[in-house]
Specification:
nine-stranded antiparallel beta sheet, alpha+beta, 22 strands
Amino acid sequence: MQIRIFSRMSRNFSVVSLVVLLFVLSNAAWTSSYESELLPPMDNGELDAAGRPFDYFAFPTTVVGVKDGKYGAEITHEGAIFTGSAELGFFVGADMIPVNQRVKTLEDGYLPIVHAQFSFDGLNYDINYFSDTADGAQGGILLYFARATITNPDAEVRKGYFWAAQRFQGPHHRVQAHMQRDLIAFQPVWNYAMTEDLALRAGRIIYAYTTAPTARFIQPGVPYTNLGEKIKLQKHYQQDWVNIVQYELDMQPGRSTTIDFIMPFKPASQKYADRLRKVNVSERLDSVRNFWRSELASGTTIEVPEKKVNDTYRANLAYMMLARAKEGEDYVQKVNKFQYDWFWIRDASFMLLALDQFGYHTDAERGALYFLKHQNEAGNFESQRGQLDGFGQTLWVFGEHYELTQDNTFLRAVYPGVRRAMQWLAAVREKHKHELKDEDAPGYGLMPISNPGDNELVDGHVIGHDLWGLTGVKNAIRMARALGEEEDARQFEAEYEDYHKYLMKNLDLTAVRTGGYISPAVEPGG
């Protein structure tokens, strides 16, 4: 399906304009397109000059990865690749000045191929970051690429320098929490070595370089001359740059040169060295471009006159797909690949419904089926203890997916879970009614007391849980009817009427207590 909006945004369009504006501004960091003009030189104090790509954040980071991949790597605010167990950074100039390009852009404005572009000493630099597997197949060795293209725009020869180096991690704005589960910690006793095309730590590959460097250094200012020699460093810290390659460039007028770097997600055994050497970076980059262009063209296309809105829409689809992980036979819609590299029903429900609404029904179905793994013994859907909104959100996702696809096979697969969830709701509400003697007591007839451990900051009957609960029951009714389960549908309707009655009564009590507004819970606090 394709939607095109050609009309100008008039005064009558002001509400939509505001929504679009807020949506775009919230995502502006990664949807700006690079036209032809390079960004200002690094660190010159000129932030986001007019007419150039803009970023709200002082220290913006982003991620590169593959669709349904287990891991992603952080592109740090300076422009390094950080995997959680190693960092690959870049430098320019004869004095090895660290690259610090704060504003980065996405290729074509929306592809998950990140560019850091800047000028230094009369040369133009474009560091291009992306991710793929070694052979392009799902489940292969996960690799991160940095392609540095250096161009001389002048009419005279210019000398330039480009460097790459590794360290364990930098001091600020690195997010490692998701990686702690199965990656190693820093060890000051590691030894380091370099071969013709590999940088090694404790005998394992940290990064590969496909172009022979002018010189190698084990540390800044300390040349490395004996290829393959293992060196154990003194006073070695996790922020120290080691295994440095230098490229001294005599750039001819109007010419460009390209230098490629490949970094495995985890430090790799040297038995993979030949496989890395066979990787054609240009082919992998073309493959990644073609994959994402095809993927993002396969759903609903939305076009409005403002390019940034179109780019934002497509970029958000791509990054939701990057956040998902295939774990065994399951497709787990996570929040991101960093500190929220985990499954939350509330986040996944919104993301999956967005994919569903824009035509990615297979992706949405795979993600929705994983919700069944989070139905507890009592029958409730709960991904984190105390977050009872998962009941309603799960039934919402199931019901909306069916409405969009009319897929009876899917509905029959999830319906036993729907029935068990409704039995859980009826049981906990009924139990709560009998436990309370005063029918005017707050929380009477609602879900149990809980503490979601989130913004509500309250132990109580969280009103949002019950608002979602009602939504879930509505969808349960629709699903029962669609399958011809009329007895269930009648029971669910009766539950809805009773639930709605008690929720309204509690909201009335809350409004009297608060003077007219709905607080996080029916009890005081929060």
